[in-house]
Write a structure and sequence with these properties.
Blueprint lengths: L1 H5 L6 H31 L6 H30 L1 H11 L2 H32 L1 H28 L1
Helix pairs in contact: 2-3, 3-4, 5-6
Length: about 160
């Protein structure tokens, strides 16, 4: 949903699907690299807990599968004019786009609030976790303001 929201374009829907396909290929490459890193680290006997190695393998596999399924769907849509037109109508529907924007906005707000609550707990429990969380919030704020300036000039 978010991928469709942020990669939507005006005009040629085929070009939108081609751009999306390139991003999905990147997802496949990054996913395979992460999974390969997990399997390689395990084979080399890296001093990492099993949960870390499983994280590499699991998230890498998931991201690669997401990219592969999305790429197959995009390619099928590009080859079939009926599917192409139906997908274009569905993705350019203003109501659906507004629902996705509001959902992303609300999720961002809740995530920031939950992170703040987690910082309140973490400062009393573990400084490393607290500094990690506050760094995430600062990076988020920086990215948010950069995007704000970008879109203020672009739109």
């Amino acid at each position: 949903m978010l991928l469709r929201l942020f990669l939507a374009g005006q005009g040629d829907f085929k070009a939108v699907l081609r751009r999306r396909s390139r991003l999905l290929v990147l997802c496949i490459v990054l996913g395979v690299a992460a999974a390969a890193a997990g399997f390689t680290l395990e084979a080399l006997g890296a001093p990492l807990p099993n949960v870390a190695l499983g994280f590499y393998a699991g998230t890498g596999t998931g991201i690669a599968l997401f990219g592969a399924v999305g790429l197959i769907a995009a390619r099928r849509t590009l080859r079939n004019e009926k599917k192409l037109r139906a997908a274009e109508i569905k993705e350019t529907d203003e109501r659906r786009r507004e629902v996705a924007r509001r959902a992303a906005s609300a999720a961002t707000l809740f995530l920031v609030l939950l992170t703040y609550v987690a910082m309140l707990v973490a400062i009393a429990v573990d400084w490393t976790v607290f500094f990690t969380l506050i760094t995430v919030v600062m990076v988020f704020a920086g990215v948010f303001f950069c995007c704000l300036v970008y879109y203020d000039r672009k739109l």
